[in-house]
Amino acid sequence: MWNLRFIIVITLLFITPFSALAHHGSSGQFDTSKTVEMSGKITRIKLVNPHSYVYFDSTDEDGVVTNKRCELQSGSLLKRHGWTADMFAIGSQISILGSPDRTDPTTCYMSQVTFENGITASRNSYFNDDGSLTDEESIEAQEEEKETELARVIIREDGTPNIDGNWSWVREERRGRGEGGGPPSIELTPAGEAAVEGAASEENPRYQCKATNIIMDWWFDGIVNKITQTDSTITLKYGFMNIERTIYLDGRAMPADYEPSRAGFSTGEWQGDTLVVTTTGFDEGWIMAPMGSERMGSKPMPGNMPEGGERPEFKDGEKDGKRPSGPPGGPPSPAKNSTQLTVTEYFTLDDDGKVLNRKYTLTDPLYLEKPFSGSDKVTFTLDDYEDYACDDLTTEREATIFKDKVDTGSNTQSGLKSTLYALEDSSVGTLISSTEWGYPIVLSLHAIGMAILVGVSLMLTIRVLGFAPFIPVTAMAPYWRVAQGGFVLNLFSGIALFCGGASEMYFNWAFRIKIVLVFVGLSLTWWLVKICIKRSDQVSKAHARLAAVTTLIWILAIIAGRLIGYWS
C-alpha cells in the first residue's frame, strides 16, 4: 500500500503545474494625426471593457475580402449612452472614420461611425431607446425630471451632507490653450526617475484589466461609481476596474498586518461640510501610467491633462533630473508612487446636491520632489452601478486571424468563421472571456481534470513498466474509473475554455496537437488496461512497450499544452 501511495505522489508531482494564462497586455498604437476611412459588412460586435470593438468584412476593388476592426468606447459607457449590440446588425453595412493603427492596417480607432440606416454618430454620442440620436442636455433633463420625482435629501439627519448614491464624471468641452488647466506638474526625485526608467505602455495596468490609482479611476471613462454612506463608514465602489474603498470615520488606525493595495487604507472626518480623507497603505503603482499618445488624447484628466502628442525633450535651463510634465499637445510623462504615498482628499457637495467636488494632494517623499495637487468633480446620476467586467481585446488577433487562413468568399469557410464567432459570443464564451472569475474557475477545473486523467494514466503505465513490482497489476484496474472521471471533467471544462477564444484556438497548432495526443493517450491507456491490467499480473514485453509509448504520448500532450500560449 505504501508503494501505491508513492506512485500516486510521484506521478502528480511529475505532471504539475499544468496551466498558464497569457493575458492580453499592451495596447495598440494609433496615429491620431491621420484619418482613415473603413467600411464593410459587420461580422460581429463586442461591447466589452475597457474597449469595445466592431468587426467587419471589407472588400477591395479586386474582390479580396479582409476582416477589419475598429475600437470604440468602453462597453459600459456605450451601453449607458444608449448604444446596443442590435445597432450593429450582423451583415449590415458600416462606415467608420478614425485614426489608423501604426502597425496594423486592418485596425482603427473610431471617431465617427455611419450605420446602414444613415445615422452618423461620434464615439461620445447618445441614443434614445428607439435608436435615434439624442444629446447630453436631453439626458440631463430627463434625469432632473426623475430626480424631482425622487426628492433627493441633501442633508442627513446627523447634519452631514448626503453623498450617498451613484455618481459619474460628465464629459465637458475642452478648454482652449491659455484658458487654464495645463498639464499636471509632477517633479520626480532621482529615485522616482529610476523607478520609471524605460517604462513602456505594456506596463500600464489598464491594459492588463487592473486598477491604476484612486484618483484617475474615480472619473475615468465616465463609468458610474457608487457611494454608500453610514454614520461610521463611507464605501466608495468605483465603476472602473472595481476598486472598492472603505473610509472609516471612527478614528481607527491602520492594522499592523494590513496588506498594501491600490485602494489603500482610508480614514476620514467631517470638517464642517467638507469630508477630509487621508489614505495610506498603498502598494507601489502608477500615478501616471505610460501610455500611447492616442490614449492620452482620448482620456484627458479633467481640467489638468492636454491632448495626445509627443513627449517633450529637456530644454536648456530646465532642472537637471526633473522630468518635464509635457507641454500642451503632449501626454504627461509616466510617474510611479512608492509605498510611502499619502493621498489627502477633500470632498464637498454643491448646494443642490448634484455635484460632488474633490480636491486632492499626493505626497510621496521617496518618488515625488514635491506634493502634486489637482481636482475633479462627479455628478449625481440615476444610472445603475455595474460591475466592471474587463476583457481587453486590444492585442487580440481576431481582427486578422482569418486573413491568411480562411477564404472568406467561400460559403464553407465563411460558415466556419460564423461558427467560431458564435461560440465566443455564446453565454459560455462570454462567461469565460468577459467575467472576472469565469476563466480562472474553469481553468482550475480543467487543470484538476487533466491532473486526474494524466496522473492516474501515468500511474498505470509506470506500474506496467516495472515500478513497484510488489503491487499486483490487477490491483491497479479500479483506478481507471477515476481517470475516466477526470476525463469527463477535463472534456467539459476544455469545451468551455475553447468557447472563450474559439477563433484563436482553432488555428493554434499546439492546441490541435494537444487534442490529438490526449485522445491517442486515452485510447492507448484504455487498451493497456483492457489487455493487461484487468487480465493478469504477468506483464509481457509487448505490454511494456505499449506502456512506454503511452507514457511518451502523455508527456508530449503536456508539452503541447504548455506551448499553446507560445504558438498563438
TrEMBL record:
Biased composition regions of type Pro residues, renumbered to the chain: 325-334
The protein's UniProt keywords, in alphabetical order, are: Membrane, Signal, Transmembrane, Transmembrane helix
Tagged with keyword Nucleus: no
Among InterPro entries, the record links this protein to:
DUF6152 (IPR046150)
Region annotation (Disordered) maps to 290-339
Q: Where are the transmembrane segments?
A: 437-466, 487-507, 513-533, 545-567
Query: Bias category Basic and acidic residues: which stretches?
Result: 308-323
Range of residues in the leader sequence: 1-22
Q: What is this protein called?
A: Ig-like domain-containing protein
